[in-house]
Design a protein that fits this description.
By secondary structure, the chain is mainly alpha-helical. It is built from eight helices and four strands; from the N terminus they run ββαααββααααα.
Length: about 230
């Protein structure tokens, strides 16, 4: 196999793989944030910036070392999706928009219930969203079935997680994870006797479309009952 001219230690197949991964990452971002007509969707951030193109045939040793870590993360996600199917009755379909939203929220909730995943989230219109998670679930076809007990999924409180999401629709997941995100970012600086009103006010301002018939209040009480939020 020929080596890359710019990096003699890099095989041509490795270079092609890297470029294909970049292509899939860009397509993943487009699919998540743009509608079929090419216009930004409601959940798209106000702006997005593509970093200047770099010659990905010149991969540093540090970048090379990240490849096994990415594979391990993909295996963890596969183990979690297997758990969702077997114990929660949720069979993930990457082609369904609602399923992608739900998986984003399930992974976010699981992080608060024992699964030490390293997905970083930002708060978007539809709630917490992780670009790295989106990239991974579009690559799931590259990951075989894995043994859940050999991944960090074994630390997840599975019974508690299943109770938390039981009967919860997409709207609940959007509001619940938004509220939990606000809570996690403010719980250290706001007293427990004031956190409830703070969370209700902040969540209503973010998810104003859902502020009907006491829905946001009910989500708050659900999260307290599940012990994901502590409030007096």
């Amino acid at each position: 196999m020929r080596s890359s001219a710019s990096n003699p230690g890099m095989t041509l197949s490795h270079v092609i793989m890297k470029k294909y991964e970049l292509y899939k990452c860009l397509m993943c971002y487009f699919n998540e944030h743009f509608s079929h007509n090419g216009l930004p969707s409601p959940c798209a951030p106000k702006a997005f910036i593509l970093e200047p193109f770099v010659d990905i045939s010149c991969i540093s040793k540090e970048e090379e070392a990240k490849i096994p870590m990415a594979n391990e993360r993909l295996e963890e996600l596969m183990a979690f999706i297997q758990f969702l199917k077997k114990q929660c009755g949720f069979t993930f379909n990457v082609n369904r928009f609602s399923h992608r939203i739900m998986l984003q929220k399930y992974v976010f909730l699981a992080k608060s219930l024992g699964w030490p995943n390293d997905y970083a989230y930002n708060l978007y219109i539809r709630g917490p969203y992780s670009p790295d998670l989106a990239k991974d679930y579009y690559n799931l076809d590259e990951c075989p079935t894995v043994d859940e007990d050999k991944t960090p999924i074994r630390f997840l409180d599975k019974e508690r997680f299943a109770r938390t999401i039981s009967g919860k629709n997409v709207e609940w997941l959007e509001v619940g994870t938004t509220m939990l995100s606000v809570y996690n970012n403010n719980k250290e600086r706001i007293n427990e006797d004031k956190i409830a009103q703070f969370l209700l006010d902040r969540t209503k301002s973010i998810k104003s479309d859902y502020d009907e018939d006491g829905f946001i209040e009910q989500v708050f009480h659900d999260l307290v009952q599940c012990k994901l939020i502590r409030a007096n």
